[in-house]
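pasting input
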Amino acid sequence: MSITRMKPPSPPSKNRSDLHTVFEQITEQVGQVIFGKQEQVQLALCCLFAQGHLLIEDIPGIGKTTLAKVLAETLGLDFRRVQCTSDMLPGDILGVSVFEQKSGNFIFHQGPIFTQVLLSDEINRTTPKTQSALLEAMEEVQVTIEGKTRPLPTPFFVIATLNPLEQAGTFPLPESQLDRFLFRIKLGYPDRSSELKLLRSGGTQKKSKTIHPILSAEKVIQCQQMAARVHVSDPLVEYVQDILDHTRNSPDFHTGLSPRAGLSLVRASQAWAFINGRDYCLPEDVQKLLPFVASHRLHRLDSQAEMSHDELMGLLLTVPVPA
Amino acid sequence: MFADRHTIPILTAVVICTLPHFANVAPWVVVVCLLLWTYTAIAVRNSWAIPGKLGKGILAGILSFLALTTHEGFTIEAFIALLALMISLKLLENQATRDRMITVILCYFLLVGALFFDDSIIATAYMIFAVLSTTAVMIHINRPNDGLLPPLKLSATLMIQAIPIMLIMFLLFPRIQGGLWGRTPVNSGRTGFSDEITFGAIAQLAQNHEVAFRVEFAEEPPARDKLYWRGIVLWEFNGTTWLRGSERWRTPPSLQETTQQISYTLTLEPHNEHWLIALDLPMRVSYRRAWLLNDHAVYSWRRISQRIAYSGESYLEAKAIGSPKQQESGLQLPEEGNPRSRELAASWAEQAQDPEQIVALALNYFREHPFVYSLNPGTLDTDDETADSTNLMDRFLFDSRKGFCEHYACSFAFLMRSAGIPARIVAGYQGGSINRYGGYLVVRQSDAHAWCEVWLPTQGWVRIDPTAAVAPERLQNDASNVLPAGEMTRTWAFFRTGPLAKWLEPMASAWDLANSLWNRWVMGYSASEQLNIFSRLGIHLNARKDLAKRLGIFLASALPLLLLAGFLISRRRNVTGDKIAIYWLNFCQKLGDIGLVRSPGQGPRDYMQYILDHRSDLEGSTREIVTLYIALRYGKHAKDEDIKKLGNLIKHFAPRKRQTQ
C-alpha cells in the first residue's frame, strides 16, 4: 500500500494565491459530484489541514460516504471504509496476525485503519471497546497490536459518521471521545436547484470515475505544515480566550470549553485562514469555525441538550472582538 | 429540582435583607418567612422537586390577602410584609436566571424599606453590609464559577466606585422639605408617653433608656433641677386617668416674664404624637405648623413621625397667667370617688387662710408620711384587672404610699382640686445628662416625669413638684439613682454603677455624640441646609420656586462624573496605550455617528462588509483603513510608519450622513 499512488498533475506552488486557486479547484471538483455543499467541503478540507478528524452527523442517504470518497480521491489519498456494527472487534479495524503454515510464522494482516483517509460509518453502532481502539489510533497516529507498535500512514484523516435518528442498539460516544474530533458538521438536505441537478444526473456513482487527484500525500503534509505556521496575533489569542472564558462563566452552559477545545479552535482558524489564502488569522475565522468546534463540546445548563448552531452564533454576539 | 449552587446564596441575601424587618411586621409574617426559608434550605439539601404553580399561586394569594388585612390597612408595614412574604415565596421558583435576578433585585426594595423604620448609624452600617452581600449574590448568579470571594470583592469595588455619585446625589439632589413628600408615619417601635396618664404610665418608661431628645443650649446650660421639659398638659380627670381634655385653646398664651431667657436647639426623636417638647416655660418655638397653646404646651399639626429639630426660647422662672376659663377647667373633678382624699383636702381648706398655705400643707403631708419613691406601686397598677380601680387616690395616699412621679403628681392635683385650687398636670421630662464630648444635653425616656401646676391668685400658674417633696434627690439625679436598689434592670445598674462604669460611660458618651452628629449632619440634611450650601457658594435659591434650577445644578454636577465613568469604561481595554486600538475605536466611533454602529461581536472584515452594504460611496477609504488595520492588528509585523499612516487615515476620515436615501 504505497503512500504516493498517483502523481499530482498540477503541483501547488509556494505562492499563496496559487494555492488558493488549487483549493478552489478541489472544491469545484468535489462539487461536481456533491452538489451545493461547498461549505462542508471546505470545512472538511480545513479539518484535514488542521490535522484534526471530522465527525459528520446526519441521516442516511445524504451523501456522507460519497463526500469522503470523492475528497480522498481528489486529494490523492488512500481511502478505506469501515461499516461499524455491533459485533465488530478491535481487530476488525486494526488488523490481526494470522499463523501461516508454510513459513510457520505469524504474519500481520493490516486492518482497514492502515490508510490515509478512513471513513468509519455509523461509529455509534459499534461497541465502546472498538470505538476506543479507533479513537486511540486517531490520537496517537499509531496502533499497538500484540505488543508491537505500528505507525499509521500520514496524513491520517478519519471521517466518522453518526446517525442521529436511530437510538436503539447504539453506543453513544462519551464526551471525552467526542472531544477527539476537531469538527462536527452536518450535511443537510441539498437545496432545490442542487437536488434537481442531482435527480437529473441520475446519481453520482459513475461521475466519480471522472475525479482525478489534484494534490498528493506530500502536498497535503506540506499544506498541514504551512497551515500550522499561519500567524496568530495576540489580540486574536485574547479573543479566543475571551470566548472560552465566556463559556465557563456564563450561566447558560453546563461546563465551559476545555483548553483543548481552545487549541483546536486556534488550529482550525489557522487552517481556515490558510485555505483562504491568508498568512494570519482573523476574528472572522474564529467566528466561522466556533460552531463546528464547540457544538459537540458544549451543553446547555438547564436541559443538557446540545447547543444549536444559532445559539452558538448568539454567544459570539455577546463576546466583544478586541479592538 | 432546587438548583443547589444558586438557591443557598439567594436565600442568604433574602435572610439578610428581611431580618431588619422582623420587628416591623406582624409575628405571623415572621413565622411564615422562617418556615419558607427552612423549607427551601431542606429542599435544596434533599433535592426535592419544585412545588407546582397552582399551589404557589394559591399560597401567594392567601398570603397577600393576609398581609394587607392584618397590618391596619395599606400601611408601609403591610407592604413590607407583602414584599418579604413574596420574596420568600419566590425562593421556591428560581430555576431560570431571570427568576433569580428578580428575587435579588426585590431584596433591594426591602432594604430601602428598612430606612423608613430605622436610620441610625448601626442600621446604616447593616444596610451597607446588606447591599454588599446582595450585590455579591447578584454577581454570583451571573458568574457562578467564581467562588465566594471574587463576587464580594467586585461588589465592594462597585460600592467604592459609587461613592462619588452617592456624595453628589446626597449633597445636590434637590431635597423637598417634609410635607407631602415626607414619609408616612410608621406606627411601630415608637416610645414616649401618649396624651393621657394613668398610674404606672411613666414608671414603664423608667426602664427605657432610649434617647428622647437632645438639646444644645446657646449659652451655659441651666442647673439640673431647673430643667423641666414641658410636654403635654392634662386638664381632665375621669376617676382613673388624666386626659388632655376636649378643649383646645389656641389663643396666644401670656406669661409674666422674668429676666433669664434661655435659647436652645432641640432635636426630638419621633414619638408619633402631636407634642413638641420645650423647656419650661416656653415662650417661642419655631417649627413649621406648630403652635404654642394657651397652656404653654406646643402642639404640632402633624404627628412627629420622624426626627425633627427646632429652636426654642424659654423663661426659666416665668409663670403663666391663667384665664378665668382655665381656672374653671382646673377645678374639674368626677362627681364621686376617693372620699377620704376629698375629706383630707376639705380639712386643709378649712384650716388654711390662703391657697399658698393649702399647697404647703399638702406638700407637708407628703413629706411627713412614709411615702416611698418606687417603680412598683403594688396593687395600684391599673393594669391589674382584679384590683379595684375606683378610689385609686385614696388607696395611694392612705394605704400603699408607694409610687412613681405620676402617682404624686396625680394625687396632688386631685387634692388641690378638691381643696378648691385650680390645678393641672404637666407631663414631660426632668433633667438630662450632659454629653462630655459634645457638650449637649441628652434626655432619655427614663427621664420622663410628671408634675403639677396650681393657680394661685397672686402669682398665676405655679409649678409644684410633689415628687421633689418625697425624693428631693430626684432633681439632682436620674430616677435610676434614686430608686430603691433592685428596681432597675440589672444591665443598666451594672452599666451605671458597676466596676466598669468608669470606662463605659465615656464610651457611651462618644457613641451618643456620634449618633447626634449623624442625625444632625447626615439624616438631618434637609432642603434648607442644602440651600445654605448653595448660598455659601453664591447661589441664592428659593426652596419652592427654584426646583428646576436646583435640578439643573444637580445634573450639571452629576453629568460630567457619569460621562467620565462612561468614558473610562469604554476605553478600559486600551488603557495599555495601544494606539492601533485607539485609532480603530475612533474609526468605529466616526462611523457609529452616522448610523453604522459596529456591534461588539463584529470582526473588522464583517464590519467592512456591513459598511459597504450600506454605503458603497465610502468603499475607497474604508477598504484602505480596514485592510491596513487588519494587517497591523492580525498580521505578523506591525511597522511604526504603518501605524502612523493608519492614524492619519482615520484622522482625515470624515464620513457624512447621507443626505438623500
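fyi Residues 186-525 of chain B form one domain.
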